[in-house]
């Protein structure tokens, strides 16, 4: 996914807390890498779910101490920078996603509230509690912020077998911003009942659909070059490997639909594709559709 070299990035939408020590509640999610896959199976791309796993988090927001590892303001200025560096690429994705939703809300007579993205390493303190990188990318509705450890994208390939690629990364970012949009529209509290057709799955599939909607409109935000089919396939591949059925097969050797929280590989691909093709958030009413 190539950025227009002369596109102007706004790194002010992304906070860089990489390399900081975590104080306050500390990092409560244990188990090390051995427990990573099972934990991610429950919380990966969970958005509003973070409040549901407070047993795996500790304390309140606390503080992050120490210097950041880089200065995004100075190093991520243009699309050319985004084409060279992963952290600048995330800045560009955040800028494009929020530019789209700002226009979409305005077109419907509403006002979009921007959400920050925080890049961190190992662990981070949030208004939802302290979390380790094992949680995966997540959205905290209490502070309206997305949190990402960039090491997750490598794990997506090495541990889940994803193909990887820039649009796979963009899909993850856009999915989390989908949860922010749900929060603004009042959909995020629709319910967290597990199961193949439960509200938890419907919430996640709507965020996938919103990610697809942004993808279908991304070029119009003036940050990105036209998206290729190969890049779309990268996003679909990422959606597939984080389907509940795929993760359960990897970690348990069997599939149990009653415990699904995010949807099957097929469902996640289907709803991303729906958003991509329809390019309209109104096509993403997973709460009433046959999923």
Could you characterize the architecture of this molecule?
By secondary structure, the protein is an alpha/beta fold. The chain has one domain (11-284). Helix content is 42%, strand content 10%. The protein has ten helices and eight strands. The protein has helices spanning 36-43, 72-75, 79-84, 86-107, 151-158, 166-185, 199-217, 229-241, 244-251, 265-278; strands at residues 14-16, 21-23, 63-65, 116-119, 123-126, 129-132, 138-140, 145-148. Strands 1-4-8-7 form a four-stranded mixed sheet, covered by helices on one side. A two-stranded antiparallel sheet has the order 2-3. β5 (123-126) and β6 (129-132) form a beta hairpin. It starts with 13 loop residues before the first strand and ends in a 13-residue tail after the last helix.
Short account of what is shown:
42% of the residues lie in helices and 10% in strands. By secondary structure, it is an alpha/beta fold. The chain has one domain.
Which terms summarize this structure?
globular; 10 helices; two-stranded antiparallel sheet; 291 residues; alpha/beta
Number of spatially distinct domains = 1
Query: What is the percent of helical residues?
Result: 40-55%
Major β-sheet strand ordering: 1-4-8-7
Q: What series of H and E elements makes up the topology?
A: EEHEHHHEEEEEHHHHHH
Query: Could you list the spans in which at least 5 consecutive residues all have pLDDT below 50?
Result: 24-59, 65-69
User: Can you tell me the overall shape?
Assistant: globular
User: Mind summarizing the main beta sheet?
Assistant: 4 strands, mixed
Mean pLDDT: 85
Radius of gyration over C-alpha positions, nearest whole angstrom: 18 Å
Number of strands: 8
Class from secondary-structure proportions: alpha/beta
């Amino acid at each position: 996914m190539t950025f227009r070299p002369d596109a102007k990035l706004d790194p002010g939408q992304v906070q860089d807390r990489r390399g900081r020590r975590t104080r306050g509640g500390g990092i409560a999610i244990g188990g090390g890498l051995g427990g990573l896959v099972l934990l991610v199976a429950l919380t990966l791309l969970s958005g509003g779910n973070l409040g549901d796993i407070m047993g795996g988090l500790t304390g309140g927001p606390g503080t992050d101490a120490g210097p950041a590892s880089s200065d995004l303001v100075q190093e991520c200025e243009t699309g050319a920078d985004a084409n060279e560096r992963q952290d600048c690429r995330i800045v560009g994705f955040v800028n494009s996603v929020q530019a789209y939703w700002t226009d979409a809300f305005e077109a419907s007579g509403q006002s979009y509230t921007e959400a920050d993205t925080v890049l961190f390493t190992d662990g981070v303190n949030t208004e939802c509690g302290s979390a380790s990188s094992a949680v995966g990318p997540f959205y905290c509705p209490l502070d309206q912020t997305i949190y990402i450890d960039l090491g997750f994208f490598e794990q997506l390939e090495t541990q889940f077998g994803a193909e990887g690629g820039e649009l796979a990364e963009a899909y993850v970012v856009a999915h989390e911003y989908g949860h922010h949009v749900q929060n603004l529209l009042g959909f995020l509290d629709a319910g967290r009942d597990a199961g193949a057709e439960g509200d938890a799955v419907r919430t996640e599939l709507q965020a996938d659909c919103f990610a697809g909607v942004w993808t279908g409109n991304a070029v119009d935000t003036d940050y990105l070059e036209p998206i290729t089919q190969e890049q779309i396939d990268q996003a679909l591949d990422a959606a597939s490997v984080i389907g509940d059925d795929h993760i359960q097969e990897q970690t348990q050797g069997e599939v149990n639909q009653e415990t699904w929280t995010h949807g099957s590989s097929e469902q996640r691909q289907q709803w991303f594709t729906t958003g991509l093709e329809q390019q309209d958030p109104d096509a993403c009413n997973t709460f009433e559709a046959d999923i």
